[in-house]
Every structure is written in structure tokens, then in C-alpha cells.
């Protein structure tokens, strides 16, 4: 909400949408007034790290001929060449819109080109003529890999933070339970003036957690305060810091005055709170990681290589070569062997086969393909060789469109999430004000009506508190409690997590959910209409019953074995769906009989 609120005020920015858990932002802007570098710097100035993932002008989105090619330059002499010369040389080529070296790597070159004027293989040939070798990179897979690496690092961080805090929380909790059960001798025995053994042990257990285990919270809280964007980390650090330093200073004060008892402290609060918050963050990152698997599995459907064929004037194949999928151009003739993935969207030029499109369309029954039929990249060619003409490549393919749809769905904000974001923006300041008011009000009430505090303070019988100490201790306890209750607030996390997990799990099961609004409106549904195969039914033929007609003159088990063995032998080489169901049934029967023998 901080980013959206501040950037929307900048001249030239017409729209911004931030996906909290995806760690992405989509920004619509006018390049006449502002560019992407200025936008990134504006986000950094607000206290967030930011880098450009993808930039496309609005007019280019309407141009289906604009493609991207990411190349890695490998010639050792690359360092001797001027990157600006390489970029300018390529941009002078007809059909190449732009060529830019990556800001994160000096040998990665991103090229935007018009597919109706030049092709990827021609670009690679031109780069080679400049004295450089290159090979294509899959930008989507690289971004997915970098994102997974970042998630893994964060996951390990919160896991270690939780384990570290837990190691100090368990003995601290044992001491607190020991105190609550009524065994007070250990807690009243003074190690120093004003320091009981229990208080000193609690202090030793709380200190590492407060200053090492909570270092990340301190860092995030500092950035939030610096850029006037109060968040949950501020509440966590306020609660733990106030509890720790109040307990420390009151114990030191009792030691300086030579008190014969130890004061009431809250040293158990930092280990307890930070352990549970770290556990929550750890579980949150686990859920986030599982959700990102949806996009990873969708991307894995894409083939990595294609067999490019060259044909003579009589349409006879004269040459075949395996090339990277990134180098396939529109209009290329691609050979697809049985059992392999179809590399790109295209149209069948020659051949007959059946294609399993269930991963893309959900239709589990193999679809017959012949000359003129359309095929989808990522689907599996079943039993015949196909020669296809590539029609859609790169971001224009069906599979890429599905991936984009899932990403957009995870970025979309449900109406309830937009409300939660608005509330979260003012939630933290309100909680801090309420905590301070709680402290002041209970101090005033205590001085005027001490009996009210004595009613709640059941420990005054054995701690021998003075009235002033009892008032301040109880007021601080109530004030800290307000902060503690607000710390694990789910306003900013529960809704986006639910949207992200819902859309991710749906994608893994072949259900594309178009954003949080669709999920929110799902509760209003009173009638469901299912697609046919693969939802209510299995989607593939299955043997349900076996009938035997006529008399049997031998052992029935041996007789059935002979029948199933004959069926298995007859159908084993067939790819027909019914044949595959018979083979599966016979194999299951033989496996079952082997298990019975064992």
C-alpha cells in the first residue's frame, strides 16, 4: 500500500498493482513523462529493493510480431569489445528493435525483434559475424530459477531463526511454567540484590534472542520507520524491545537500591513472541514456495529442443538438425517424433497421429491430428510422426499465455484484499496509539483506584510489591499485551496467501482461476457445471467387469491366466486407448496374483 500510494502521485504513472507474496509490481506509465529507471529509483527511495523484470510499451503488446531473444555471449575476447558498439551495431539491423546488455551480467544480451522481418537464427548468425559466439537463454526459466533461489534463501533464514529462538524459548517457558505452578522458592532466591536466580536466567535466555535472533526484525523495522511506512515488524520490535528493556532497567534499579526481592519482569516475552512469529514466517514461505511450483510445473511442459527440417522444392526432407527451442522461427518446419513433446504451436503439414493435450486443455482423450490440424506446444505426440509448421512461438504460444494468466491471477487483488490493504496502512499507528493510551489510562486508574489493580494482580500476596511498583508493572503489562495481540495480525498476509495458494493449487490440478475476485465470488455459487472427462469420470477407458461364457474343464485360475496372457500379448504393441486399458488391467491382475503368492 505504501508503494501504490506514493507512486500513484508521480506524474506519468497511470496505474500500479503490487503483489505482496509474489514480490512483483505491474506499473502502467507514460514514457514521455517518466522512464523505468526513475520508477525503480522511486521504489528504492521508499525503502524497498527493486529491479526490472520485463518492460514492454503498450503499443507493442498489440503487435504479435514482436519477440524477445536472450543470448549469452561466450567468446573470451568479449571484455575487449565495447558493449555500446555491440548494441548499436545490432540495433541498425532491419527488424531488430532493441539490443541491451543485462545490468546484472556483462555477457547476457536481451534482443527485441520483429518476427516478420528477421528470425532468431539470423540474429545469432549476425552476432557470430561480429566475432562472438552465443547461445540462447530461456528468460522465463532463468527468472523462475532466480525467484526459487531467493525463496530458498528466505526459507532457510526463517527456519534458522525459528530453531535459534526455539532453543532459548523452551527453557524460558519451563521457568515460567515452574513459576506458575506455585514453586516460588527458586524465583524468590536472590543471586544479587534485585536479581533472583529465575530473573537472571530469563535475562540470559532473552538477550541472544533479542539482539541476534531478532536482527532481521530490527532491520525491517528501521527501514519502515525511516520511510514512514509502519508495518508489523515495527509492532514486533516495539513489543519485544519494551518488554526486554523495561525488565532490564527495573531489575538494574532494584539492584542499585539494594532491594531484598526481585521485581516482576517480562524477559520471557522476546523468546516467546519471536519464536512464534519466526514459525509463522517460515510456514508462510513454505506455502509461498509450494505455490510457485505451479508456474514451475507449467513451464516444465515446454520442450527445450526442436528438430528443424530443410525441404527441397519437391517437399522432400533433405536435412534435419536439432536446435534450441529459442531459435525456432515462425514458418519453420519441425519434425515431431512419437512419444515426444510438440515444441511450438503450429499446423500439421504432413503425417497422422493422436496427441495427448490433457496437460493443456484438460481433455484426457487423445486428439486425432492430420494434415491441416492445429497442434499446441507442450502436448505429447502419441504414435505417429508429424511434420508441423510453426505458427506461434515465444510469448505468443498457448502455454505461455496460460503461464501469464496464472501470474496475472496471483497478482490480481480481491475486493476484500484491497480493503485489508487500506486497513493495514493505518492499523499499526492506531495500535501504537492504543498501547500508549492503555499505559496512561491504567497509571491514572491505579493511582485513584488501586483496589482494581489489586483484584487482577494475584501475585501481590507473595511478591510484596509497593503500590507504585504494582501500578507501573500492571500498566506496562497491559500496554505490552496490546502490542503482542496485534503483532501476528493476519490482515496483510492471510488474504494474499489464500489467493496465491488457491490459484497455484488450482493450476496444478488443471483449474485456471482468474484472480482473487473469482475466489471471493465462489461462495455465492449454488450450481456447478462440470466438464466431461477427467473431472467426474476418469477420462480413460477402464475394464469394469469380466464375463466368462461356456464350461471350464481346467483350474479356473490357470484358465484366466491364459486368457489375460493372450490379451496382453495381442494388445501390447497397440496405442489405442481401449488397448491400453486392457493392458493395464491384465498387468494389474498379474501383479495382484504375484502379491498373493508372496
Number of strands: 17
Tally of alpha and pi helices: 22
Rg estimate, integer Å: 34 Å
Q: In which order are the strands of the major sheet placed?
A: 10-9-11-17-12-15
Rough outline: extended
- Computed structural class: alpha+beta
pLDDT under 50 segments (min length 5)? 58-63
| Strand residue content | 5-15%
Taking the sheet with the most strands, its summary is: 6 strands, antiparallel
- Fraction of residues in H or I helices: 40-55%
What do the pLDDT scores average to? 79
Between the first and last Cα atoms, what is the distance in angstroms? 64 Å
Question: Can you put this structure into words, describing what you see?
Answer:
- The protein has 598 residues and is of the alpha+beta class.
- Helices cover 53% and strands 14% of the residues.
- Strand 1 and strand 2 (24-29) form a beta hairpin.
- The protein is extended, with a radius of gyration of 34 Å.
- The protein has 22 helices and 17 strands.
- Mean pLDDT is 79; it is low at 58-63.
- The chain has helices at residues 2-7, 36-45, 58-61, 83-91, 120-129, 139-180, 185-188, 197-213, 215-226, 232-256, 269-300, 358-361, 398-411, 415-448, 450-456, 460-463, 467-486, 494-508, 516-521, 532-536, 556-571, 577-597; strands at 13-19, 24-29, 66-73, 96-101, 108-114, 134-137, 190-192, 195-196, 305-311, 317-324, 333-336, 345-350, 353-356, 367-369, 374-375, 380-381, 386-392.
- The strands form five sheets. A six-stranded antiparallel sheet has the order 10-9-11-17-12-15, with no helix packed on it.
- Helix 8 (197-213) packs parallel to helix 11 and helix 10 (232-256) runs antiparallel to helix 17.
- The two termini are 64 Å apart.
Amino acid at each position: 500500500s505504501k508503494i501504490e500510494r506514493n507512486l500513484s502521485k508521480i506524474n506519468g504513472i497511470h496505474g500500479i498493482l503490487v503483489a505482496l507474496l509474489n514480490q512483483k509490481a505491474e506499473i502502467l506509465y507514460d514514457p514521455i513523462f517518466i522512464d523505468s529507471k526513475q520508477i525503480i529509483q522511486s521504489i528504492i527511495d521508499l525503502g524497498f529493493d527493486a529491479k526490472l523484470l520485463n518492460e514492454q510499451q503498450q503499443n507493442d503488446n498489440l503487435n504479435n510480431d514482436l519477440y524477445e531473444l536472450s543470448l549469452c555471449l561466450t567468446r573470451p575476447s568479449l571484455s575487449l569489445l565495447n558493449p555500446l558498439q555491440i548494441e548499436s551495431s545490432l540495433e541498425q539491423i532491419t527488424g531488430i528493435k532493441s539490443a541491451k546488455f543485462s545490468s546484472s551480467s556483462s555477457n547476457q544480451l536481451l534482443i527485441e525483434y520483429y518476427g516478420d522481418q528477421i528470425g532468431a537464427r539470423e540474429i545469432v548468425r549476425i552476432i557470430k559475424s561480429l566475432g562472438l559466439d552465443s547461445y540462447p537463454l530461456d528468460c522465463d526459466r532463468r527468472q523462475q530459477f532466480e525467484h526459487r533461489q531467493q525463496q530458498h534463501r528466505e526459507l532457510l533464514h526463517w527456519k534458522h531463526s525459528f530453531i535459534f529462538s526455539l532453543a532459548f524459548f523452551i527453557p524460558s517457558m519451563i521457568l515460567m511454567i515452574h513459576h506458575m505452578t506455585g514453586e516460588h522458592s527458586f524465583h524468590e532466591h536472590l543471586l544479587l540484590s534485585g536479581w533472583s536466580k529465575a530473573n537472571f536466567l530469563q535475562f540470559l535466555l532473552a538477550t541472544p534472542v533479542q539482539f541476534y535472533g531478532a536482527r532481521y526484525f530490527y532491520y525491517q523495522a528501521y527501514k519502515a520507520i525511516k520511510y514512514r511506512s509502519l508495518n508489523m515488524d515495527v509492532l514486533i520490535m516495539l513489543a519485544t524491545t519494551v518488554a526486554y528493556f523495561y525488565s532490564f532497567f527495573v531489575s538494574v534499579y532494584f539492584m542499585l537500591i539494594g532491594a531484598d526481592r526481585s521485581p516482576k519482569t517480562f524477559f520471557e516475552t522476546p523468546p516467546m513472541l519471536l519464536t512464534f512469529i519466526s514459525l509463522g514466517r517460515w510456514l508462510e514461505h513454505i506455502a509461498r514456495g509450494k505455490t510457485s511450483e505451479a508456474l514451475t510445473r507449467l513451464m516444465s511442459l515446454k520442450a527445450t529442443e526442436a528438430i528443424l527440417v530443410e525441404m527441397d522444392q519437391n517437399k522432400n526432407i533433405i536435412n534435419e538438425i536439432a536446435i534450441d527451442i529459442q531459435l525456432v522461427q515462425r514458418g519453420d518446419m519441425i519434425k515431431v517424433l512419437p512419444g515426444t513433446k510438440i515444441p511450438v504451436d503450429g499446423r500439421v503439414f504432413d503425417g497422422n497421429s493422436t496427441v495427448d493435450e490433457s496437460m493443456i486443455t484438460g481433455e484426457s482423450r487423445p486428439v486425432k491430428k492430420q494434415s491441416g490440424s492445429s497442434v499446441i506446444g507442450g502436448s505429447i505426440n502419441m504414435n505417429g510422426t508429424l511434420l508441423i509448421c510453426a505458427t506461434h512461438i515465444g510469448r505468443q504460444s498457448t502455454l505461455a499465455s496460460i503461464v501469464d494468466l496464472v501470474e496475472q491471477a496471483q497478482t490480481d487483488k480481491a475486493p476484500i484484499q484491497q480493503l485489508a490493504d487500506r486497513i493495514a496502512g493505518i492499523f499499526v499507528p492506531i495500535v501504537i496509539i492504543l498501547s500508549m493510551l492503555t499505559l496512561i489510562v491504567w497509571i491514572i486508574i491505579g493511582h485513584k483506584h488501586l483496589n482494581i489493580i489489586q483484584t487482577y494482580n494475584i501475585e501481590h500476596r507473595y511478591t510484596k510489591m509497593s503500590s507504585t511498583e504494582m501500578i507501573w508493572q500492571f500498566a506496562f503489562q497491559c500496554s505490552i499485551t496490546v502490542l503482542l495481540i496485534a503483532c501476528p495480525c493476519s490482515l496483510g498476509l492471510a488474504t494474499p496467501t489464500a489467493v496465491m495458494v488457491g490459484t497455484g493449487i488450482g493450476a496444478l490440478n488443471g483449474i485456471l482461476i482468474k484472480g482473487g475476485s473469482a475466489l471471493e465470488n465462489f461462495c455465492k455459487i449454488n450450481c456447478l457445471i462440470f466438464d466431461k472427462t477427467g473431472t467426474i469420470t476418469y477420462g480413460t477407458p477402464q475394464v469394469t467387469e469380466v464375463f466368462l461364457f461356456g464350461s471350464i474343464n481346467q483350474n479356473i485360475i490357470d484358465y484366466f491366466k491364459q486368457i489375460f496372457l493372450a490379451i496382453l500379448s495381442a494388445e501390447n504393441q497397440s496405442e489405442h486407448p481401449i488397448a491400453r486399458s486392457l493392458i493395464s488391467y491384465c498387468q494389474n491382475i498379474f501383479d495382484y496374483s504375484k502379491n498373493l503368492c508372496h
